[in-house]
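Morning run. Coffee first, then this:
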Amino acid sequence: MYKSQDLNLSEMQYSIPARSSVIDRDNDGYADHMYVVDMGGQMFRLDIYNGESGSDFIKGALVADWGGSGAADNRRFYYGPDVSEIALGDDLYYAVAVGSGFRAGPLSTTTDDHFYMFKDTGVFTIDANGEYTLPSTPYVETDFYDATAHLLSSSDAAVQGIESAALQSKAGWMLRLTTGGEKVLSSPMILDYKIFFTTYVPASSSTSSCAPPTGNSRAYLVNLFNANAVSDLNNNGDLDSGDRSAQLKQTGIAPDTQILIEAIVTHVVWLGWAF
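And here it is:
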């Protein structure tokens, strides 16, 4: 059934090559929320009020703006986010995971690309008008905890306490992709409170003289709640920042992460060809 609507968002000025991430929260076969990211480093949330029409059918707003005016901050989203409902203790939100990267310029090393996890509580908060809550102003970089240094696992209890408090006060977290030109060129996947995603690193940023001319891909596995490493990938006995990712044998740009179901009861996550 077609429902006319006239939603006009003034901030929606950039093209949207990424797929929309659509949520059917009550499993009735109708979309209830949509997350949309664009070429300006922005994320929108659209709330669909099924049964309504006209201007009451869809409400929406810019919920996060991770772009900037300078070349280093000119982030773009070519691939849609993954979304998962989180309901643990007092925490109730949608975890929205997405990474930035310029697909049309994979060899570029100009932009500082990041990976983000946004805690959207607004879909579980109803305002006085009976509508889902949207932020009055979009969240920006400083509203997200910078998890890059892996300080939440610090052996110094004081540092760990400070960082934990900082994380709790933020709208989510971000990871800086610190290798020159490293960028996200596929959609991530949330599974079992973990986030899987791949990045591409151009050959010009490799420290190896034997680096393939097509560049390398990395597979990341991080904790959804804090971006900490999940497994001791470098086998040094500690879970540190070096355990967040491993280089794939596949060269070039890796495809989207996929799940292979084996014997119905187990699953295998595929990121490119292999580690």
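The chain has a mean pLDDT of 90. Good start to the day.
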